[in-house]
Amino acid sequence: MALREEILGRLRDKARPQSFKELAKDLRLGKAESKKLKRMLDQMTSTGDLVLTRKGLYAPPGEINLIKGYFEAHRDGFGFVIPDSPKERDLFIPPPATMGAMNNDKVIARAEPGGKGRIIRILERAQTRIAGTVEKTRLACFVRPKSRTMPVDIYIPHKECAGIPNGQKVIVEIIEYPEDKRPPVGRIIRKLEAPTAPLEEIDAVMEELGIPHKFPAAAQEAAKALRHPEDDLLKHRKDLSRLRTVTIDGERAKDFDDAVSIEVTDLGYKLWVHIADVSHYVREGDTIDLEARDRATSVYFPDRAIPMLPKELSEDLCSLVPGKPRPAFTAEMDFDRFGKMYSAVFYQSLITSQQRMTYTEVARILAEEDYRRASRYGEKLLSDFKSMEELASAIRSRRMGRGSLDFDLPEPEVLLDMQGRPEDIIRAERNIAHIIIEEFMIAANEAVAGHLAASGVPSIYRIHEEPDPEKFEEVARYCRAVLRKRFADLRGIISAARGTPAEEFANYAVLRSLKQARYSTENVGHFGLASECYTHFTSPIRRYPDLIVHRILKEVLASGRKGLPEERKARLAQELPGLASHCSVMERNADQAEKTVLDAMKAWFMKDKAGERFEAVIVGITNYGLKVRFEDFFLEGFIHVSTMVDDYYIFDENTLVLRGRRTGRRFRIGDRVQARIDRVDMEAREILLGIGK
User: Fold this and answer.
1) Are residues 434 and 475 in the same domain?
2) I want to staple 538 with a disulfide (CB 3.0 to 4.6 A). Which of 115, 441, 515, 612 is the partner?
């Protein structure tokens, strides 16, 4: 057993925290080994794996009522600590107890009476740069952050503000982080100009949120130097190049990281899920790998993708383009006719995709009238698509039967014209082809996760924790008011709302009650998928956790029955928790960037429509007003009660009705209203609505 795991094991077995001398004696270490112990204790204390008490004693945080996690900040000054351990509940931190922690900072917090907590140590700062607006006074200069998760202004020394006008948009580098009563201190490193076109707005968002748009020269040169593998490097791979294989992606996709093949068997189906073998090209610790680790994910905007890997890899060497032999990692799975998987094997392969298909094409082929006309793909490929539909339907039925949540949450898609201006915002299509690929990828991810869990090797899992009982009671109460039924679980709410005017409201209410899925080395299952064991394996071109899982699975397969050496397991156990946390944070950052760009495109789309009225439907109600969706285009907005000046409106939370005190006018979910565009705030990227007459 490695020293780190032995230290943690001994401390957890003790009834109280231990001193250095007690630990050294307990571990029976000599003088030289004691020095190694001291270095290890210092390292574990700096990462938050151990806490050094005021009396100089060591203990794991959870053993002394402390929680290690990241801070999720709110614009009103409070926040939550999201624990690293999925076995612990989120901890509310009131404004006076944040210790100056900022959004996504790694922290240690103490739980206190009354369900609240206090941050006692900040382990790692997540933000180094902030976008904001210069605000000058006679005595001071500050930058007011644009992000709503940053509740305090940044103090700028006067010499740093010389020559910079009041109201100037800037990027600030933080040089001193905030403490309890002291604001952060920064220096201005760049001026920002107001965007004059939508594509400039996307550039501005990337600048504000620190999304990298170029690869370092070293990584770029390393990518250009890579070549397709020689034949002798592919001899150990299983040759599947004669297997009928297709990719199915969106029309604009350029990185094809998964392909599928299917065969009908006597017992049911044999499914091959082939995943681009990024680990064949990107070695752990090399220049490209370190850059990919920092980025952790690709980011997708309406006009571009910011890839995790250089395009030489993401769009060429690794991409499963049709007609080109590619090294892959294959999950070969056998299913019975009812969609139950009864065997799975994994191996490195060599594949050739016969056809690059789109979701739209496959959905049309599977429609009866188009199925007969699509002979250009060949009868065998057409038969494969029909078999894929049958198998995906069977797998999905089993998944729903075990309690998986079946959200149907519509998403907007921004259509740009030739000049890069948003010309329409539509509801993104989700058809049978999307469902086929979704079910096949879930099946492959579950199979890989189960294999790794059974091997006993440390790995990264995709976890989704169960909601707190209080959250369920709250959402059940609100949905009962709309649907007039009582519910025993979240799936019952989703099922009851399907096809009703309250469907979207119920889906979003359920979604808000859930914790966010994340990466962890502790496998606690995936609540949303009702999966006991789940990971991410199917997108290594665009997600770093998938690349980690590929490498671990390769090692496990290569080690055979011997298993991995204990030293390797110990190293994985030490490194993976930090990587899982980093990838979760970067995923949230990418989601925020994509949402911010979407809000900006909505603002540009409505920019010249101030004063106009549009038909809309109410999809949500709170005591603050009405959430509406326009009928002419797929865009949502909020009508605040302060703009509804014809009456005083009262919210009845028992019926989810907003009712006028004098007029008795009522607003319910599903009602149609006229929404008036009062103003478009381009800086805040907000559309301000009023109620039409």
Assistant:
1) no
2) 441
> 17-31, 69-83, 162-176, 547-561 — which is least confidently predicted?
17-31
Q: What is the pLDDT of residues 210-247, one digit of tens each?
A: 898 899 999 999 999 998 877 666 778 999 999 999 99
Q: How far out from the chain centre does Cα 626 lie?
A: 28
556, 613, 629 from 660: Cα distances, Å: 66, 22, 22
CATH code of the domain covering residue 36: 1.10.10.10
Per-residue model confidence as pLDDT tens digits over 323-337: 999 999 999 999 999
Model confidence at 631: pLDDT above 80: yes
Q: Are residues 574 and 668 in the same domain?
A: no
Which residue has better confidence, 20 or 616?
Answer: 616
Q: By C-alpha distance, which of 438, 362, 360 is closest to 400?
A: 438
Which run of H or of E encompasses 396?
A: helix 379-401
- The answer to whether residue 201 is domain-embedded is no
Same domain, 484 and 540: no
**Token reading at 5:** 């795991």
Task: Show the beta-strand stretches assigned E in 177-221.
Answer: 185-192
Distance CA 192, CA 209 (A): 13
Contact assessment for residue 635 and residue 629, using Cβ atoms and an 8 Å cutoff: yes
Average pLDDT score over residue span 563-592: 92
- As a whole number of angstroms, the distance between CA 556 and CA 576 comes to 16
What one-character-per-residue DSSP string does 124-162 give?
Answer: E---SEEEEEEEE-SS-EEEEESSTT--SPEE--HHHHT
Residue with tokens 């949450």: 409
372 located within any domain: yes
Instruction: Tell me what pLDDT residue 407 has.
Output: 78
95 with 155, same domain? no
Q: Where are the alpha helices (DSSP H) in 402-421?
A: none
Structural domain total, the chain: 6
- Considering the domain architecture, whether residues 281 and 418 belong to the same structural domain is answered as yes
Tokens of 675: 């929404």
Q: Could you tell me which residues come within 8 angstroms of residue 93 by beta carbon, excluding any fewer than 6 positions away?
A: 71, 78, 79, 80, 81, 101, 109, 116, 117, 118, 119
Kindly report each contact of residues 226-234 with a partner whose C-beta sits within 8 Å and lies 24 or more positions away, as own/partner.
Answer: 226/281, 226/312, 226/313, 226/317, 228/317, 229/280, 229/327, 234/325, 234/327, 234/350
CATH number at residue 162: 2.40.50.700
Is the pLDDT at 370 greater than 70? The verdict is: no
What confidence tier does 1 reach under pLDDT thresholds 50, 70, 90?
very low
Please name the residues in contact with 57: beta carbons below 8 A apart, sequence gap of 6 or more. Answer: 16, 17, 18, 19
17 shares its domain with 51: yes
- pLDDT for 66 equals 86
What CA–CA distance (Å, rounded) separates 285 from 288? 8
pLDDT score recorded for residue 375: 61
Q: pLDDT value at position 317?
A: 94
Q: Is residue 200 part of a domain?
A: no
Q: Tell me the three state secondary structure of residue 585.
A: helix
Joined together, the tokens standing for residue 9 give 């094991």
Instruction: Print the domain residue range for 546.
Output: 217-465+517-600
3-state secondary structure of 360: helix
**Cβ-contact 109, 91 below 8 angstroms:** yes
Q: Tell me the pLDDT tens digit for each residue of 411-440.
A: 899 999 999 999 999 998 889 999 999 999
User: Are residues 460 and 489 both part of a single domain?
Assistant: no
Give CA–CA dist 249/271, Å, rounded.
18
Domain identity same for 232 and 327: yes
Q: What are phi and psi of 512, to 5 degrees?
A: -65, -25
On the question of pLDDT at 51 being above 90, the answer is no
| CATH code of the domain in which 87 resides | 2.40.50.140
Domain boundary among 11, 39, 61: 61
Question: From CA 332, how far away is CA 398, in angstroms rounded?
Answer: 19
Residue 679 pLDDT greater than 50, yes or no: yes
Contact (Cβ atoms closer than 8 angstroms) between residue 142 and residue 157: no
Q: Look at residue 667 and tell me if it is in a domain.
A: yes
| pTM of model > 0.85 | yes
